[in-house]
Design brief:
Elements (H helix, E strand, L loop, with lengths): L2 H4 L5 H22 L6 H23 L8 H16 L5 H23 L4 H21 L9 E2 L5 E2 L3 E2 L3 H23 L2 H11 L1 H6 L4 H27 L1 E2 L6 H14 L6 H16 L6 H15 L4 H13 L1
Helix pairs in contact: 3-7, 3-10, 3-11, 3-12, 4-5, 4-6, 4-10, 5-6, 5-10, 7-10, 8-10, 11-12
């Protein structure tokens, strides 16, 4: 008698869910214990860029919009949050909310202007609009010019958790990043997210069904901008600094690099890409090697070997094995 025939096998969908749950618990355990293994401020930087790359992936990977201006939302949110915390003496939560609200409003305005253009025209319009924010950051008195806004107070979370404690700051940023990723996951897996994917694949067919692609793309762009500002706000408070680095076009190029390197159109890809880029910058900082050249070379090699990105190729390989 065949014993295995008597025991029902676990359905593939349930097996995949079980594996996913185990991996989620494993990752959560690593993140909770990570401050004991390495410097928390380095981990905070990774978390902020993970959320930034995931937010950018919402428009590039799912809506098919290549924006060269997302640094305006990331850096703009950082400046507003830093100013609100230092000059207006707002508590941590309201300072973060102010930076996020600013990025959301600016994202809606930029999207309303650029969303009707396609391809390189859309990219160039977003770049031009982002450069306006950069020049404002250089010229406006409250931004501090090339010095930026320094010595930003971290304040207290919920009025009693001292965020001067770097470990407390890490867990706060970890919670904010997790919240942002959940919002992105829920958006992508909703009917709205499925419509975005359909627009990316064939916008003409979606229009023929009576839907308005511009409206969906504008909502996605605005949501992406708000989450980017949320990431920038947390970074400014955690590092107690808002500078021109966060609002330059180089930052827009860096988040594109993170998304493409990890694998656009996936939820895990931007997380992998952001971790790789920030990790390379961190470990090469004291090596004396040209960091930009090394990261560019690494990107070229990955593009040639992993056309879907690092995680995208892994996912494709596992899907072929399963088939």
């Amino acid at each position: 008698m065949n014993v295995t025939a008597l025991s029902p096998s676990l359905p593939k969908s349930n097996l995949a869910r079980s594996i996913g749950l185990i991996l989620l618990i494993l990752v959560a355990s690593i993140l909770l214990l990570a401050p004991l293994l390495t410097y928390p401020l380095y981990l905070i930087k990774i978390l902020c860029f993970v959320l930034f790359a995931a937010a950018f992936n919402l428009v590039l990977g799912y809506a098919g919009l290549l924006s060269f201006g997302h640094a305006a939302f990331f850096g703009g949110g950082a400046y507003i949050a830093a100013h609100a915390a230092k000059v207006w003496n707002l508590p941590f939560e309201l300072a973060i909310l102010a930076g996020t609200a600013f990025a959301t409003i600016v994202g809606f305005i930029f999207g309303a202007i650029a969303i009707r253009r396609h391809g390189i025209y859309f990219a160039m319009i977003t770049l031009a609009l982002a450069q306006m924010i950069y020049f404002l950051a250089v010229q406006m008195p409250f931004t501090g010019g090339e010095d930026g806004i320094q010595s930003v107070p971290r304040g207290y979370l919920l009025g009693f958790i001292d965020l001067q404690n770097i470990t407390a700051m890490y867990y706060t940023v970890l919670g904010g990043t997790a919240l942002g990723l959940v919002i992105i996951w829920r958006t992508v897996n909703s009917p709205f997210g499925h419509t975005l994917s359909a627009i990316r694949e064939n916008e003409t067919r979606v229009t023929s069904l009576g839907l308005k692609p511009e409206r969906y793309k504008l909502i996605a762009f605005t949501l992406s901008a708000g989450l980017s500002g949320f990431a920038g706000s947390m970074k400014a408070i955690a590092f107690q600094l808002a500078s021109l680095v966060d609002v330059t076009w180089h930052m827009s190029g860096e988040v594109i690099l993170m998304t493409l390197l990890g694998g656009m159109g996936t939820l895990i890809g931007p997380i992998v890409g952001a971790s790789i880029v920030v990790g390379l910058e961190h470990f090469l900082a004291t090596s004396g090697l040209p960091i930009t050249f090394i990261i560019g070379l690494f990107f070229v090699v990955c593009v040639m070997m992993f056309r879907r990105g690092v995680f995208g190729e892994m996912k494709h390989f596992l899907q072929r094995r399963r088939a």
